[in-house]
Amino acid sequence: MLHDVYKSVGGFGSYGMISMIIFIVFFALLVLYAISIRKKDAEDFSRMPLDDFSKESDEIQDS
Amino acid sequence: MENQTFYYDNKIVRNFAYATLFWGVIGMVVGLLLALQFIWPALSFGIPYTTFGRIRPIHTNAVIFAFVGNGMFTGIYYSLQRLCKARMFSDLLSKINFWGWQFIIVCAALTFAFGITTGKEYAELEWPIDILVAVIWLVFGANMIGTIIKRRTQHIYVAIWFYIATFVTITILHVTNSIEIPVTFFKSYPVYAGVQDALVQWWYGHNAVAFFLTTPFLGLMYYFLPKAANRPIYSYRLSIVHFWALIFLYIWAGPHHLLYSALPNWAQSLGVVFSVMLIAPSWGGMVNGLLTLRGAWDRVREDPVLKFMVVAVTAYGMSTFEGPMMSTKTVNAISHFTDWTVGHAHIGALGWNGFLTFAVLYYLLPKMFQTQLYSKKVANMHFWIATLGIIFYAVPLYWGAITQASMWKEFTAAGFLKYPNFLETVTQLRPMYATRALGGGLYIIGILLGVYNLIMTVKAGTFVPEEAASAPALVKRSASREQGEGIHRWLERRPVQFILFALIAILIGGLIEIVPLYLVKTNIPTIASVKPYTPLELQGRDIYVREGCYTCHSQQVRPFRSETERYGEYAKAGEYIYDHPFQWGSKRNGPDLSREGVVNGRQYKPNSWHYNHMLNPQRLNEQSIMPVYKWLISDDLDISTTAKKIRVMQLFGVPYPEGYDKIANDDLMKQARGIAYDLKSQGIQVEPGKEIIAMIAYLQRLGKDVHAAGNPTATISGK
């Protein structure tokens, strides 16, 4: 069915279909990987900008 | 492990920050002058250096590559050192990057003012400067990658992934789109022609937006937003999906700039589908940014940095919804060639890039100068005036765009165009143009307040050129994947492999779209009656490119009844095969010109009309907003380059007879004398060796071959 839908887009044909499949597989693997990351690792990585070892200047701004 | 002490290089960050402010003011003031020329065309001042076609590239390049470019370097040099816990790889490379970039900007401004341009939007720089850009960009890349390699953190943070993608993709885009053969030191022709040139150019043009205006700023968002809010990024998982999906998808979307053009339908469809899909990763990024502020929204009320960031990220969300919407054929049929595109571009430039740049500057300059922002009140004034400026800028352009598109398409009950004179549709927009100029003016006032605030901040503080920091050395780990280590986790500590993966992700889309256009001949059916330009027409075409006529006039009739009724036959791929570069344009401030030379066509005008129009457009049409081009009448045509130009064209396969370069000027003068004679019969005395003659010859050639199939008017000796 999906093939018919894309065939109906002018000039798209199976060429675009292959491109879509490449992306969907790529995207699905990416989502699976993202889900599989350990919660602690994800939290550590998301805090990286806050840990730049130059606290002095931060304190000046926040004071 | 023992801590190592090292020093962040703040001098390079400060220098880029100053350059950002300086070029920001210059670029936007030029933009305001352009906006005012829509209301008072006399503001071209009757000289070549300030005409719309020449200063429009100055404005776009100054804002994109000077203001946003320097802003990007400011943020990257600041955040990269801190995320890698390392000083930049080389101070010398940092300095070469800074001074080389400023030199390029000055060269760009001067060459555009002098009409030295390739005539390709956002890639107007001529070949010597193109080479310089490539060298300086590689210097930046080497410095960045060197810093990542000598980092003290195992993990490469998501912001750096975006910086890497920026470097890799811009290198490929710039080099691919800038392949040109020099004619002289200041003139070259691109190796691509017509449809192929259009696809490569908009693959570049769209992805310059993606990888120069978007990905580096997403990297800055992922660093500075958590810093300013003092909160971790909302979802690291989402950032992974955001990054890879975005860089994979963006590269496919270029053809949406060429909908309803002579580009093969399959390429247009790919552009549409991938553009619509782009909403997902783009909004993923926006949501990730805004949700980072969870629990810190109360601070947005007080902190100007966060205010600017919130509007920037929101503008990013608006632009990335609007862009895909404009990429659907239904909306594009209305929006293309109108001010909608300009409004859309400015939501991105003023809102996303401009506001995020100022957020970054307001954040890091007080830190580097060990002080607080001089005045929150002035920063808040900047914020509100500039926000109002964006609204006053964009809304009238959207209004005007729909008004003009409707007027272009409206028919009377009897089946004729209701507004056959293009000028009627321009006149209708004048109030909108005035409001747009007001919006731009407000935004500049905001910027000036920002500059004042930052100057006072800098004056009040003490600069720390070498900021001390300490961190343990990086523990060496196996180059291969360790037990239980996922591919991405491994990639996140292997910069070279990460670069290769990013390269593969962006190359897939580019290659799939571009290669078939060269390999499958049926993509560009040839038309037997389409012949090469005569030497005089070729010289005239180069003047057309020099004056930036493509910034206001398209050369691409779309297959709509409203367009074929107004201009004539719709565009076909085969008619552009000798166009190095293509000149389709992207905006119609004036009518399409691709059928201008069709005798008895709807757009045809005699030679004398063109002469008088260039001399003083307002004398022919009082409401015209076209600048005067009187120097074309007084300046001699440089025919010393004709032979070289013919030889370069022959190199591209343009079928001029062998040895034609030696006699090309004879043909040129013969055709020029014919036009001068015709003008004389209309009471206009002009020598055949003037530039206006070549310009008229070129304009009168446009569209003739397609309409006079089998009876081409262009003549080449020996054919």
Defining key terms:
A: mainly alpha; 4 helices; B: mainly alpha; Cytochrome C Oxidase, Chain A; Cytochrome Bc1 Complex, Chain D, domain 2; 2 domains; two-stranded antiparallel sheet; disordered C terminus
Describe this structure in words.
Chain A has four helices and no strands. In chain A, helix 1 (2-8) crosses helix 2. The termini of chain A are far apart. Chain A has one domain (2-47). By secondary structure, chain A is mainly α. By secondary structure, chain B is mainly α. Helix content of chain B is 63%, strand content 3%. Chain B has helices at 10-37, 52-84, 91-113, 127-149, 158-177, 194-229, 236-250, 265-277, 279-291, 297-302, 304-327, 329-335, 339-368, 376-409, 422-427, 430-460, 487-491, 495-519, 535-546, 561-566, 607-615, 617-620, 631-634, 642-651, 660-681, 691-701, 704-707, and strands at 3-9, 180-184, 187-190, 466-472. The termini of chain B are far apart. Chains A and B meet through helix 2, helix 3 and helix 4 of A and helix 2, helix 6, helix 7, helix 8 and helix 13 of B.
